Amino acid sequence: MICVQFIFKPGTYDDDFHRLDGAIDTFARSLPGYDHVELWTGDGGLVNAMYYFADQQSVAQLARLPQHREAKGQVERWYDGYRIVVTEVTATYGDGRLPT
């Protein structure tokens, strides 16, 4: 499993942001390798949107999405800083009471 974390400090959102963000999220969730997404807010107002995929091919498809490329080119308009962390999840476990 691959986890793509988009860690960011929110800035000012506009109509273009909401249009692109919605299109990217809808496309990500439609991919065959999509598993789930988790969203966390941390200290200092940082947000971590973690998308989990079964394979690297799905991640690559998301990266090629025209709306994703358009948003990447304008990221400074909407965020006061960001970073991407891509990791391979080698194990996950718990008591079974949380959804995956």
Please, could you describe this protein's structure?
With 100 residues, this protein is α+β, with helices and mostly antiparallel strands. It has four helices and four strands, in the order E-H-E-E-H-H-H-E. The protein has helices at residues 15-30, 56-64, 66-72, 75-78, and strands at 2-10, 34-41, 47-53, 79-88. A four-stranded antiparallel beta sheet has the order 2-3-1-4. Helix 1 packs across helix 3. The two termini are 12 Å apart.
Write the H/E string, N to C: EHEEHHHE
Number of strands: 4
- What general outline do the C-alpha atoms trace? globular
Provide the helix percentage.
Answer: 25-40%
Features:
alpha+beta; 4 helices; globular; four-stranded antiparallel β-sheet; 100 residues
Give a brief rundown of this model.
With 100 residues, this protein is of the alpha+beta class. Helices cover 36% and strands 34% of the residues.
